[in-house]
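Progress report, Aim 2. The chain analyzed during this reporting quarter is listed below.
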Amino acid sequence: MKSIRIHGFNTPAVINEVSVPSIEADQVLVRVMASALNPLDIGLMAGWAARFFPIEFPYAIGCDFAGVVERVGDAVTTFKPGNAVVAWADPLTGGGLSEYSAVPAKSCVLLPSSLTPIEGAAIPTAGSTAWHGLFSEGHIKPGETVLVHAASGGVGIFAVRFAKKAGARVLATTSGAGIDLVRSLGADEVVDYKKQDFAQVFRDVDLVLDLVGGETQSRSYPVLKRGGRLVSTTSPPDVAVASAHGVSATMMYVKPYASRLDEVVRAVAQDGFKVVLDTSVPFEAFNDAIERQRSGRARGKIIITQS
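Predicted structure tokens for the chain:
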């Protein structure tokens, strides 16, 4: 089979011909139909994420994908061959940008019939990060005001929609073409961060979902009301600074587990959310997708498809 792999940090990804993987008793073999890229994939390729995920080479890229179960391990009772599934692989093993991938059954959920494999592949990392950032970590409540940074990115798009569905007033930062996109998703107020200082516009925010870090994170503390919360997915907050502003601040990372993924996939399917795609390319054009993800300018998810 074909598998997109890297053989070292900061080296080009290449298509390797490798054997179809065997499966353990608790695993399923999935014929991959669509895969999604994430910022984490670029971090793993560049090496800056190695301190969190000590990958080994050659490394098969890709954690988020959807496809059809080909085989199941002897201990697997939740799936059978022919099931369409969404899979969320451990970043240490990857394997989503391959024709076949062996993953633990606990990393998979059934793909709802209302979603295509492309839509399903777009959900795991981005959708789960947004969901748990808002609910599990952010404890969002109806009527609260939520500020989503990088709202037109993969995670941000899900966050805006989930927050609106939860009854929150949604503020957002983005730029360029992302402004109209985020407004179309239901954001109540949108700031073009290249033209305006959000810290001069927004006030009395209950929750900040920080998907940027750095200076954006630092300037977010004053916009929070006392007792407000900041949840970051990018860098550890300065607890002392947060305390000085009378707010709480945490960093989160969502690990791939089916129990976490299932509620997110069901929420997307049941509420009829249209998954926003930035780019969809065939397997052989994978480098175009990687470069688009590396650019940081994606508006929605970047997908690589297979026939």
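DSSP finds ten helices and 16 strands in the chain. The first helix runs from residue 39 to 46. These observations will guide the mutagenesis work planned for the next reporting period.
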